[in-house]
Amino acid sequence: MKKRFSLLTLVNLLIYLFIIAPLAVVVFTSFGESSYLVFPPKGFTFHWYIEVLTGGRYTKPFWNSIWIAATTTCLALPVGTLIALAFKKYQFRSKETMRSLFLSPLIVPTLLFGIGLLIFYSNLGVSDYFFRLVTAHVILTVPYVVRTMSAGFARLDASVEEASLILGASPWQTFRLVTIPLVRPALMASAFFAFIMSFDELVMALFLTGPGMVTLPMLIYSDIQFNMTPAIAAVSSIIILGTVLIGLIGMGMLKRNKIL
């Protein structure tokens, strides 16, 4: 038993190391004094963080990515939630076909979606880069919301909803006051996935945006090709920190409300 436990612990440690090591390399590299990316870093400085935070070059792409991700989340969350709820509540002939259709963005390469949407929007004459990118991101993120919310609804005790209806609550009141609070962890996880997936997406942005709408992943991708300085690592480290903080805040909220 001890040998098996030790082996399992070792495997887990190796998995964690495999996940964390690349992130640690990025963070350490961001403090290097050299004008190009090198690991291990030479010297120690906050120069690249100061440049990123005060230089202004990354500010607009950062806020572009934030607004796109926030808008995508606000659209994908209700759409995906309603789809997952429909799959749970209703039985219809083409249910499995519809389920596969809604989950197809998880299977089809993003490159193909990007080409297809580029042709589609070009034929329609849609030139608003923000609209093009948000709708594309909604298509990509809705499947994650559907999967996550489906798992949340599957764990939901139907008798609680039935009791609410028996006691005189309307279907809308039951959904708003009973169902939603019970699936709040799934909602928060869905929102987190949708936001991060949209914020981090690159392929769609390369196809569907132009000079007036540059996202942070696009700028980082460009810098890796033509301007490979530790500023890239500094930006990436800030994103890593933000992601960790959002995750910790979400877990804290769930624990405070005794959901976890």
From TrEMBL:
Q: Which GO biological process annotations does it have?
A: transmembrane transport
UniProt keyword annotation of Cell membrane present: yes
Q: Which domain of life is it from?
A: Bacteria
Query: InterPro entries, alphabetically?
Result: MetI-like, MetI-like_sf
Keywords from the named record = Cell inner membrane, Cell membrane, Membrane, Transmembrane, Transmembrane helix, Transport
Give every ABC transmembrane type-1 domain span: 62-250
Query: Is this entry keyworded Membrane?
Result: yes
As for membrane topology, the entry says: Multi-pass membrane protein
Which CDD domains does the UniProt record give? TM_PBP2
GO CC annotation terms, alphabetical:
plasma membrane
TM region(s), chain numbering: 7-31, 66-87, 99-123, 228-254
Where it sits in the cell: the answer is: Cell inner membrane; Cell membrane
Protein family according to the UniProt entry: Belongs to the binding-protein-dependent transport system permease family.
Q: What is this protein called?
A: ABC transporter permease
* Classification lineage: Bacteria, Bacillati, Bacillota, Bacilli, Bacillales
